[in-house]
Design a protein that fits this description.
Helix content: over 70%
Number of strands: 0
Oligomer: single chain
């Protein structure tokens, strides 16, 4: 569950929303449109997510969410 990960890794509400959209396969531009933010801000959210989750790629972040959902 993204809420659990958000709490565990201190993600902001917007970072958690962006992570949820990443798990749906959206890219930065689509995340930006969905959240009504700039593409640069969406990219910043994604970079902060990767740093906070201590992963190196969006794929690893999504895999972490999927693992969390199966625990």
């Amino acid at each position: 569950n993204i809420t659990v990960l958000a709490y565990k890794f201190s993600l902001s509400r917007r970072e958690a929303e962006a992570l949820a959209l990443l798990t749906q396969g959206l890219v930065a531009k689509e995340i930006a449109t969905t959240l009504k933010i700039s593409t640069a801000t969406a990219r910043t959210h994604v970079q902060k997510i990767l740093k906070k989750l201590r992963v190196h790629s969006k794929l690893e972040a999504v895999a972490m969410v999927l693992r969390q959902n199966h625990e």
